[in-house]
Amino acid sequence: RFTKKGSSASATAQGYSLPFTFREGGNRIIVEGEINGRKNKFMMDTGNSGSGIAFHSPEQAAAYGAPVPEGCKVGSFVGVSGSGSAYVYTINHLRMGPIDRNDLSVAAHMGAAFGGEEPLLGHEVFEGWQYTVDYDKKVIHLLRR
Per-residue DSSP letters for 7-53? Predict the structure, then answer.
């Protein structure tokens, strides 16, 4: 959930700050996190409600320390980037600043319909947190709800 900068519910007073880099091409907010202790970069995606993390391919998932397990179920997705199929499973652990998730649902998309850069962080990662994006200071202020 976004809040307007300067609102009375500002997360700066009691919360945590998570630094980010901003990539102007595509208006991308990039944050660092860890999957099972392996550090990498992720892209915030406020529209990703289907999974905690959406990997662009099984190969990307493996490179991030979240390989697709044997016998994994396949689901379908529909989004701004198109529609298609994805392997759907859980990862043991994600940490990103104060956010610490176990058994997080992820999707590793199959085929050319889904492509891009860093994996997309979805709603499940931020569940229970209110966040305010401060573009001037390049930090995301997080407040536990």
Answer: -TT-TTTTSEEEE-EEETTTTEEEEEEEETTEEEEEEE-TT--S-SE
